[in-house]
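Any chance you'd type out a single protein's sequence alongside its tokenized fold?
>
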Amino acid sequence: MKIKSLFIITSLVFNLLAIPQISLAQDEANPAKQYNFVYRGHSSKKIEDEDDYALFKAAERTIKEGYSYFKIVNLRKYDAITEYRNQRSNKLGRRYNRGKKLRSEITIDCFMENPNDEFSYNAHETKQKFN
């Protein structure tokens, strides 16, 4: 009985250790290159939805870097409001910038081949969709 339980525990440990090696082997076949970049504005004349515009900008950057597929890892949007302290009264306030200062930071993973997951996009198809 002890030998059987020892065998089961040993096989479970080996199976758990083998899982990360399998996932690393898949990543080495199609390695991702990560890019962080900033773009101004949240929309254009043709694309009014902010998320669609982020997809368009990510597709442009992916093609520029020579890749075919991308996945958005992080997207952060900033508006035109900035906080400041009034120098006379030392009170915290808000100031609205007159010019459009909308800014977004985006992090994408780029791939040469399709990573076959639900969050990846074909850069050429995405860019063509919004042109």
